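Table S5 (text form). Sequence records supplied for joint modeling of the two-component complex.
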Amino acid sequence: MLREITSIFLPALSAVAPVLQKLGATDFESHVVTEPPDPNAPFLRLSNLVKIYPSAQGGVTALKGVSAEVGRGEFVGILGRSGAGKSTLINMLTGVDKLNEGEIWMEGTPVHTLNEDQVAFWRGNKVGVIYQSFELMPSLSLLDNVMLPMDFCDLYRRGESRERAMELLRQVELQDHAFKLPSAISGGQQQRVAIARALANNPPLIIADEPTGSLDSATAEIIVELFEKLVDEGKTVILATHDHSMDDRFSHTLTMDDGMLVDEKHAGSSEEQYA
Amino acid sequence: MLRPRWRKVLADLWENKSRTALVVASIAIGVFAVGMIAGTYLYLLEDMQSTYVGSNPSNIRLITDPFRSDLIDTLGRLDSVQAVEGRRTVKVRALDSKGKWTSLELIAVEDFSQMQINHLLLKTGVSTLADQQVIMESNKKLDRFGAAVGDVLTLELADGTRRSLPVVGTAQDQTGGVSNMVGNVKGYVTFKTLEWLHAPSSYNTLYITVRENATDPAHIQAVSKEIQDKLVKGGRTVYREERYRSDEHPMSSLIQALLGVMFFLGVLVVFLSGSLISNTISALLKLQQRQIGVMKLVGARSNQIIVMYIALILIFGGAALLVSIPLSAQAAYALAAFAGTMIGFTLQGFRVFPLVTTLQIIIALLVPPLAGLLPIFKGARTTVHQAIHSTAISDSSKHTSPIDRLLAGIRGLSRPLLISLRNTFRQKGRLALTLLTLTLGGAIFIAVFNVQEALNVKIQQSLKYFLADVNLDLDRNYRVEQIASLVESIPGVDRVEGWQIGSAEVLNDDKSVAGNITLFAPPIESDLVEPELLGGRWLQPGDSNAITVNESYWKDYPDLTPGSTIRLKINDREQDWQVVGIFQYTGAEEYYAFTDYNSLAGANKTVGRASTYRVVTTSHDPALQREIAVEIDNLLQARGIKVSKVEAGSTTVQTVTDYIGILTAVLLVMAVLTALVGSIGLAGTLGMNVMERTREIGVMRAIGAFNQIIMRLVIVEGLVIGMLSYAMSMLLCLPISSLLSNVVSLAIFNAPAQLALTYKGFVIWLLLVVALSVVASMVPARNASRMTIREVLAYE
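The corresponding C-alpha cell record, covering 1071 residues in total, follows.
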C-alpha cells in the first residue's frame, strides 16, 4: 500500500514544487526602479524629511524637516538623547517606515517612492541593517542566518552563498560556531552574526540602530572596531547611538534633538551648526 | 542542501511539536473521514453491486397458491421471460444453541448447486445438498441462532413430529438486503426433505428474470403484470409481489442515503479542520510577526513569505495524508465488511482506490492552504516597522467591543476568574472559529441521539398498530374461544384477541390487478390499535366491510377520500369495501389496511377462528412479556396446538431498535470525529492563547501568581469556551436533528420523521465537553505554570 500512496503522493508533490519555486523566485528587475546615478550626486541624500505619527492628541512630529548628505565610505554617527528622533530617522533611511514628506535618494534610487516589496528587495541588495536586539532567526543556525538574505535576494548561487556566509562568519571570528543556534552564543557574538548577516549581499550601506546598546563596553568596542574595518573596506556605515563618547570615531556626525538635525560635523572640518 | 528559508519552515514545524501534531491530526481526521466514507462507498458500489449482479437476482418474486412444475415451464416460454424457478418456503420450529424454540424458514430448491436465479455464495461446508440435510443461510441471525457445519438441528413439525437435520453448509444470500437482519433464520433443503418433514412438496414462490431491460422498473412491472394476469386467469391468487432491478441492490438507496449523510459530515469535518488551520496559522503568524519583519528587513518580499507559509501548510497536509490514507483504507474496508455482514455480500478483498486517494490528496493539499490563505496574506503584509516595533504585551484596551465593555462591568467575581473571562474574549476571531468548530461538533453529536430517538418514535408510531404484549402465530386457524380461554388461564394474562391477517388483490375498474394489500382485522372493539388518522375516522362497532387504508394509497390514488370504495379480491371473491379513514403508517410504499375481524373472517370464511393472536398482559413489563411468551408456548404445545411463533412485544421492538442502533452507531462515529476536531481546535486555541501571553504570564508570576492560579486561569478559560459552545450546540442541534432525521427516515421508511429530542445526547455531550475542555486546557495550563519568570520575560 505504501507504494500506492507514494506513487500518487510523490508526483503530486513534484507537481506542486515547481509552482512554489516559481512563486518564490526572484524577479530581479521588476522590483526596484532606479535612475542612472549622477556622478556628482552624493551617495545618500536626505531632503526635508518629515515624519508625523498619529496619536489621540493629534499628530506627533518625530522628524521636522531633516536634510543631509552622506558620501560613500563615510562612518556616520547619528547622535542624540532618547526621543531625539534617531531611530525614526534610521527607520526612514532603511525604508522600514514611510515618510510623510521629503525624499531619500541613494545611488539613483528614490527610496521614498518604493512600495513595501520594492523596498524589501532594495534593502536586501543595498542596505545591511543591524538592531540593538540583534533580530536573528531563533530557529536557524548562525550560518543559515547569514545565508538568509542571500537566499531571499538570489544574488549568489547555492554553494557560493554557503562559502560566502562561512567567510563572513570567519571575518567576525565566529566560524567555529557556524552551526549553533543564536540562543547558544553570547549577546556580543549575536551582534557579530547580525553584522555578518548585514554584509551577506555585500551592500554598500550598513545602518545600525544602537548596535552596542545591550552590550558591555569591551564587547561594544569589538563591534565598533568591526564597523571601522568595514568603513576601511569602502562601506558606508551609519550608526545611531546616544553614546557621545563615540563622537571621535565617526567621520561624520549628525546630532538630533526634538526631531531636528541640530548639529552636523565632519571629522577634520569646523562645526556646522543648525538653527 | 536546503535553502535557509526552507530550513526555517522545517524548524517551525519541529520547534513546536504539539502544535504540529494538533494541526496534522485535525487535517488527518477530516481526510480520514472523507477517505473512509468514499472508500466504503466504492466497496459497496463495486462489491455489493457486483455480488448482487453476479447472483443473477430475480426481477420478480411472486408468492402464490401452490403450483407444479408445468406452470414454471409455461411461464418460461413467455417471450418476456428469461428464466423462471420455483421454490417453496415452509416454517418449522428449531431448537437454537441456547435450547430455545425458534422459527426456522426452510426453503426447498430443486438443485442447490444448479440454482439459476438468486444463487447463493457458499461460505462453509459443501455445495451439494443431499436429502435430509440443510444448508443454512449465513447472516447475523444465524450467528444468534448458533448453528454451524456439523451441527444437527432438532426440528419440530406442524404435527408434533421431531426430526434431526444435519447442517452441511452455510451460504450467503446476496440479494436479501434487510431480510439478513430481520425476520427468521433460513435454511435450504431439497423437496424430498420437505416431504420427509411432512410438508407439501409443491412450489409456492416464483422467481423470475426478465429477458430484456432488466434494469427498467417500468418494463419489469409490465412483465410482472403480464405474469400475474396469467396466474389470475389460471385461477390462482398472488399474495405478494416484489420487483427488483437487476443492477441495483435493494438496499443501495438506503446505503447511499446513509453514506450521503456520512459524506456530508466528513466534508463538515474537513471544513472544521480548515477553520482550525486558519486559527493556527494566524496565531503562528502573529507569534512570528517579528521574524517576518526580520525576513523583510534582510530582503524577503511578501510573495516569498507567502510561499514559505503555504509550504508549511502543505507539509502539514502531506503529513496528514501519510497518516490518514492507510488508516482510512483500513477503516473503509472494515466499515464495508460490517455493511457486508449486515446486508449480505462478500468483499472482493482489501484494496486502495486511486480515486479515493486522489480525493484525499486534493483535500489535504487544497483545503488547508485555502483556509490559511487569509491569515497568511495578512501576516505577509506586516510591515517591518510593525513587526520590529510591536510591543511585547499586547494592549487591547484601545479597541473595546460591547463584549469587552460588558466584561469590564462584571463585579463580584474573583480577579483570576475575571482575568480568565476577559482572556476568553481577547482574540475574538480565534474564539469565533473555535466556537464554530466545537459547536458544530457538539450539535452533530447531540443530533445523532435525536435522530435515533426520531427513528424510535417512528417505530413506536408503527407499533401503535400492534400494541400487544405477546404476539402469537399458530400453524393454522384455531377456534378463538379455545385459544383465548387457554391463554387467559395463564396468570399474568389479561385478555386475548384473535386477529385475522390476510392479503388481497386491489382491482382496478377494468378488473386488472393494481397491487397487493395486507389486511389486518382485529376485533372491532380492540384497543390494541392507536391509529393516527390523516382523514376520516377509525372503524366503529356496526361497521361492515368498512376499511381504513394507509397513506401510501394517496400516492397512487390522490382522489381517494373517506367514503370512496375500493374493490378487493379475497379468496377469489371480488367485493367492494368502503374506505372510512386514511391512517398514517410508516410512509412505506406498500398498501396496508385495517378492517374488523368479522368482515375479513366472513370474506375468508373463517368466522370464529384465527391463526394470529394478540395477548395483553396485566403488566407491560418486558420481562413479564418474555416469561408469558414462554408459558404460552409450553401450554399450547402441551395441548397439541402447533405454535409457529410466539414473541414478546418487547422482543419485536428490540429487534427493530437494534437495527436502528446499528445505523445510528455508524453516524455516531462521524459525530465523534467532528467532536474530536472540535476538541483539538479547543486545545490548539488554548495553546496559542497561552503562548501569546507568555510574557503576561511571566509578569503575573513575578507579582506572586503561583502554579495553581496560572493553571486555573487557563482551565477556566477552556471551560468558558466549552460551555459557550455547549449553549450554542443546544440550539444548533435542533435544525441538524431535523435534517438528519428526515434524511435517514426517508432512506429507511421512505417517509420523513418528526423532530424528536432526547436528553441522552445533551447530557453525554455536556459531560464530554466539560471533560474535553479540561483535558484540552491541561497541557497548555501545565506548560504555562511550568515557565520560569526568566524564561517568559526573555521570550521572543
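Note: Chain B has four domains: 1-54+250-390, 57-243, 396-465+653-796, 470-619.
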